[in-house]
Design goal:
It is built from 7 helices and 5 strands; from the N terminus they run H-E-H-E-E-H-E-H-H-E-H-H.
C-alpha cells in the first residue's frame, strides 16, 4: 500500500476471512459501506473481490463516495437499505475524521441513522449474512454494538486473528525473497 490509496494486507486478510466461511466468491454479493472516499481498505477489497468474481456494492453518502467509483467495478448506492438488499457480506468502514477537512455529513447521529449498521438494517441482507469491520470501530457511528459483538454474524474478531496469520505470511514471504 501507499498509505492513502491501498491497504493490501487488510484486503488479503478480509478475503481470507470471507473464504473461511463462504467458499465461492462468484456467488457472493458484498456490500462495502461508509467512508469509501477516504478508505484504503475499500479500494483494496474492491480490487480483490472483483478478481475473484464477487458482486461488489459501494454504499455511502454522495459526499463520501469518490468521483468515478462506479468505474471500480462496483455498483454504487447512496441508499443503504437498497444496497444491503440480499447481500451475503456487509463490510463496514471506519469514518476517517482525521482525513476530513470539511463537513462530509451533518453529524455522527445522522450518519448512523442513514449508514450505520444496526440489527434492523442487517435484516435487509441475506439470512446468514456476515458482518466485517477493519477497525478501529466508531461504535454508534458505523456500527451498533449489538451487531459488532454478535458472534452469530460478526467476523470482526476473526478478522483480527486472520490478520496476524496473513501479515506473518506476507512478512515471511518478503524475508525469504530477500534472502535469495
Amino acid at each position: 500500500g501507499d498509505g492513502r490509496h491501498a491497504h493490501p494486507t487488510q484486503g488479503l486478510l478480509d478475503l481470507y476471512t470471507i473464504r473461511h466461511y463462504k467458499k465461492d466468491f462468484t456467488r457472493l454479493t458484498v456490500g462495502v459501506v461508509g467512508d469509501i472516499l477516504h478508505s484504503r481498505v475499500a479500494r483494496s477489497n474492491v480490487a480483490l473481490l472483483n478478481i475473484l468474481g464477487a458482486r461488489v456494492r459501494l454504499i455511502g453518502p454522495p459526499t463520501l463516495m469518490p468521483a468515478g467509483a462506479e468505474r471500480w467495478g462496483a455498483e454504487v448506492f447512496h441508499d443503504m437499505r437498497k444496497g444491503l438488499d440480499r447481500a451475503d457480506v456487509v463490510m463496514m468502514l471506519r469514518v476517517q475524521r482525521e482525513r476530513m477537512t470539511g463537513g462530509f455529513f451533518p453529524s455522527a447521529r445522522e450518519f448512523f441513522w442513514f449508514y450505520g449498521l444496526d440489527e434492523d438494517k442487517l435484516q435487509l441482507a441475506k439470512k446468514g449474512a456476515l458482518v466485517m469491520h477493519p477497525g478501529p470501530m466508531n461504535r454508534g457511528v458505523e456500527i451498533d454494538s449489538t451487531v459488532a459483538d454478535n458472534p452469530d454474524v460478526s467476523l470482526i474478531e476473526t478478522q483480527v486473528r486472520m490478520g496476524v496469520a496473513v501479515r506473518m505470511a506476507v512478512l515471511e514471504a518478503l524475508a525469504e525473497s530477500g534472502a535469495n
